[in-house]
Fold this sequence. Notes:
- By secondary structure, this protein is an alpha/beta fold.
- The protein has a single domain, classed as Rossmann fold (3-Layer(aba) Sandwich).
- About 45% of the residues lie in helices and about 15% in strands.
- Strands 1-6-5-2-4-3 form a 6-stranded parallel beta sheet.
- Helix 5 links the parallel strand 5 and strand 6.
- The mean pLDDT is about 90.
Amino acid sequence: xxxxxxxxxxxxxxxxELCADIARHLMTRYKAGPVAIVVDKPFxxxxxxxxxxxxxxxxxxxxxxxSLEMEKIRDYSYFLGELRKLSFTVTxxxxxNGVVVVTPEDCMARHGDTTLYLACKVSKSCLKSIVNKLSxxxxxxxxxxxx
Length: 147
């Protein structure tokens, strides 16, 4: 396996908490490049993830509305614009600069992801294939505690 990646292990108690945690962590990683979220059932995971993401953007919108400083308002507006540009999908495009929610088998076909969220158990051979296709200095956030 490649050795130029960073592994972060996290623990959550429910799927709603998982979606919220991924959305919060994604706020810090969205500019780094393509993101893959590996789950067993992508279609059922997608809606709660988007809901958590939209809740966070709404929180930033409220913070912008409460601010009186023009510089902060400008910064919040720029940040919101960047967050709204981020694309989420469940389908398997070859290359997307956004967030893709996929099964472990579909993730093996992807290349160059900079952030990988493991939210389900993955076989060792599949995990090795996925990790070898990550870009340099990638971040793997492991909720399944496999790394």
